[in-house]
Amino acid sequence: MVEVKALNEVTSDEVVSKAREGINWCRFASTADPDQKKWEYKLVSDNNIHPGNTCKYTLGTAHAVKEDE
How many structural domains is the chain composed of? Predict the structure, then answer.
């Protein structure tokens, strides 16, 4: 699952809270997927999306989201 947000929003409490829910959803989806696909959550800022960049490169720029502390 990929979520795109403006760079100035990726550290906001609301975005981080939703990102944590996305991480939890992906964890559940990984256990429930009948094809046993591993689901992952990636938070990408809009400034890292450019024509010509590969998906792999763009996903590599994803922001780390810390689990609940």
Answer: 1
